[in-house]
Write a structure and sequence with these properties.
Strand content: 15-25%
Largest sheet: 9 strands, mixed
CATH topology: L-fuculose-1-phosphate Aldolase
CATH class: Alpha Beta
Number of helices: 5
Radius of gyration: 16 Å
Number of strands: 9
Structural class: alpha+beta
Order of helices and strands: HEEEEHEHEEHEEH
């Protein structure tokens, strides 16, 4: 079991890594890791913090009702979605990123409500996939400023084999049984989104 300080350092490093890849510019994105399950406590970056400058001591502990129970700052409004994902899937970490690729693709493909990832070698980086000869569908839900309604809209898709959900024109939610697994899922999915986008652009240029 990791100590709180170890979790703070690990989550801070993860946020810095994602920011360095330009997947959470400025104050964009939100990230959580489970501290304890009963009652549920999440370690998160507070709302409004520049994700390229987060320090371990700035992270806050938030309960299931989005109340900050340790630390300074406000809980992200999107804590509701983190709680929904974690309680439904019993995963350990949730990462929400705002890359250009996931934002553009989720908006472009919003009407079909999914992006199919098929035949790519990098699919094997996702949990439970051992071959490139497969496909997964990443769901796309409509954006909504009402976080409870948005949380309800993702619920039906949390029993699929996809380790992520896109919010149209907004970004990506991914998760994992550990912080490292959640970060790996972000990296693999973002690679695949970039590949799909590049392929679409090549097809347009022909």
């Amino acid at each position: 079991m990791n100590t709180i300080q170890e979790l703070r350092e690990q989550l801070t490093k993860t946020i810095a890594d994602l920011h360095g890849r330009r997947w959470c510019e400025g104050t964009g994105g939100n990230f959580s890791v489970v501290v304890q399950r009963d009652p549920l406590h999440l370690l998160m970056a507070p709302s409004g913090v520049n994700k390229g400058q987060v320090e371990p001591a700035q992270l806050v502990i938030v309960d299931e009702q989005q109340k900050v129970i340790q630390g300074q700052g406000r809980a992200s409004a999107e804590t509701t979605l983190h709680v929904e994902i974690i309680t439904t899937l019993q995963c350990r970490a949730v990462l929400h990123t705002h890359s250009v690729e996931s934002t553009v693709l989720s908006d472009h493909c919003a009407k079909q409500a999914t992006i199919r990832l098929e035949g790519w070698e990098m699919l094997k980086g996702l949990k439970g996939i051992a071959t490139h000869d497969t496909s997964i569908d990443i769901p796309i839900v409509s954006n909504n400023q009402n976080m409870r309604e948005l949380s309800q809209s993702i619920r039906p898709y949390l029993n699929t084999n996809a380790p992520g959900i896109l919010v149209a024109g907004h970004g990506l939610y991914t998760w994992g049984d550990s912080l490292a697994e959640a970060q790996r899922h972000v990296e693999i999915l973002e690679f695949l989104f970039s590949t799909v986008l590049q392929k679409k652009l090549l097809q347009l240029s022909q």
